Amino acid sequence: MSPTYENIVSWVEDIKERNHSSAAALTVIKDNKIVFEHYCGFHSNTNNSRPINENSRFNVASARKSYLGLCIAFALYEGKIHSLDDYASDHFHEIDRDTFGNTTLRHMVTHTHGLDETSEGEIIREFDPGEKWAYRGMNIKLMAQLIHEIYGRPFPEFLYQKVFLPMGLKRTWWETEDNDDLVKVIVDPNKIAKDTTGSAEDGMESNLFVSSLEFALWGNLFLNQGKFNGKQIVPQEVIELAVSILTPDHLAKEFPRNGMFWFVHDIPRELSELGDRVPRGSFQILGVTGPTLLVIPKYNVVVAKMYNKRYNYGNDDYLYYLKEFGNIVADNFRIKKSEESYD
């Protein structure tokens, strides 16, 4: 194993064992080349389960937000949405305007909207828009509905034509039926892992499955500002919208900063998932089942990490482990860059 990746693999394997994930995968793209792949474990925690390989596809959970975010950026670029500072109530007419108040689309895509949804489907307000930051799911549902209305089709279909087809992605989709390549998700280590396919392919459910390599290629598309194999398949302005900091300026310093759902690093922040040693301008997306996609433009590197265990890091140390992954990756490439400069 190359010393460049030894620390990263060691960390990934350690977390896999400590958190009872049955599977892990790691893909590194550097300077637009796939320089490292690592696969270990099994598709489930049952006997005779299939070994993980390059075809294995993981449920990426909340990381699917980055796919929806690109569609929102397209809608802004194409003038289908006038502005991120449009009031949400102007777009979601079925919801009481008083509930939305001064909530804007900017609040919706940066997790600063302050809204939540009860188990009965009632939308409630937790805090005033822009006052705090909270990771909730109702903004994703509403924005997915908006993109469907704007383009007349679910956002996965829009992405398939605009992005997946030109890139040749064949292991990225919202699955409704189980198949041999799909990795099961462990909720309780003492119970059999679950089939997490969904009932529809419309992007409204958490049933997006992606291979580690195609997850990394997704990140590399953003790193290259919309180019793939030298061809501009997504306008550069769309990518810039997706991964620029869009969070309201007055949000308290300790909260994360976001683009179109991506976490974007500027300065070390107490409640951010990005490590303090990760270079400014880096961006990341992650999911509750363990996937993390980290893009570091300064080092021209993309790292995709996969697990199949919900709540991989527990509660108390959640942020520490997320930050530490980024810090280890950044340290490795910082050292490598220094060595290359010395040579």
Supply the key terms.
32% helix, globular, 6-stranded antiparallel beta sheet, alpha+beta, 9 helices, single chain, Beta-lactamase, 343 residues, 3-stranded antiparallel beta sheet
Structure description:
This protein is of the alpha+beta class. It is 32% helix and 16% strand. Helix 2 (65-77) packs across helix 5 and helix 2 crosses helix 6 (155-167). The protein has a single domain (3-342), classed as Beta-lactamase (3-Layer(aba) Sandwich). The model has no long low-confidence stretch (mean pLDDT 94). The strands form 4 sheets. A 6-stranded antiparallel beta sheet has the order 2-1-13-12-11-10, with helices on both faces. The protein has a 3-stranded antiparallel beta sheet with strand order 3-7-6. A two-stranded antiparallel ribbon has the order 4-5. The radius of gyration is 19 Å and the shape is globular. It starts with a helix and ends with a helix. The protein is built from 9 helices and 13 strands.
